[in-house]
Amino acid sequence: SSADCFDRLFAADWDLAIGRFDAAPDGIKRAPLFSDQIVCLARVGHPRIEEELTLDGYLEEAHLSIEAGLAGDQPFTIEDVLRSQGLERRVVSRLENLAMAPFVVARTDLICTAPRRTIEPFASGMGLRILEPPFETPAFELELAWHASVEADPANTWLRESIAASAALRPRLPGRSQA
After folding, report:
1. Whole-structure pTM value
2. What is the SS3 assignment for 27?
3. What is the pLDDT of residues 63-111, one digit of tens each?
C-alpha cells in the first residue's frame, strides 16, 4: 500500500518506492516516471474479435482480470470505470501477476484489460493484439518516491536517475544538478 511504502521510506528500510501514489506526507519526495493508458489484449485469431473491439463485443467476452495489490491503492479498477458508465464485464478468471496475463490470453479466448506499457512488449512475440478499449479510461502515472533525507545522497541520486533512464524518460529529478 502507499502508506506502507511511505512508512518503509521513513524507516530507511527502502531506498526508493515505485508506484501510483495519491498523496505523499511531508518528507517524501516524488518524481514521475511515465504515464500509461489502459488497452485490451486478445490473441490473434480470436474467433469473435475483429480489427476493432466494440462495446457490445467487449462486454460479451470472457475476461481475465488482474487483481494485484489492494483495491484501495489502485488509482481505479476497470470495474469502477465500467460501473460509472452503467456497464459490467464478465470476469471468468483472475490473476495476481500481470506478467502472467499474456501467457493465459495467448492460449485462450479470454481478453485482458491492462496497462499498455506492461502488456505491449509481449504482444508481437506471442501472437497477441493490442486493442483500444471501447470505452473511456483514465490515464495514470507511475512515480518514484524517496525520503527527503537521501535527496542529495550520490548513490540514491544515481539509482533514481538510472531508474528514470530505464523508464525511457530523463526527467529533471530533484537532488541533482543538471550539467
Report:
1. 0.71
2. coil
3. 999 876 544 445 567 888 889 989 999 999 998 888 889 999 999 999 9
d(CA 154, CA 136): 42
Nine-digit cell string for 117: 506499457
Q: Are 68 and 173 in contact (CB under 8 A)?
A: no
C-alpha to C-alpha distance for 128 and 121, rounded to whole angstroms:
10
Burial of 75-103, coded b for 16+ CB within 10 Å and e otherwise, reads eeebeebbeeeeeebeeeeebeeeeebbe
User: Of 123 and 115, which is predicted with more confidence?
Assistant: 115
Alpha helices in 2-138 (DSSP H): 2-10, 55-60, 78-84, 101-106, 116-123
Strands 140-147, 28-36: pairing is: antiparallel
Read off the C-alpha cell for 103: 501467457
> What single-letter amino acid sits at 133?
P
Amino acid at 6: F
- SS3 of residue 90 by DSSP: strand
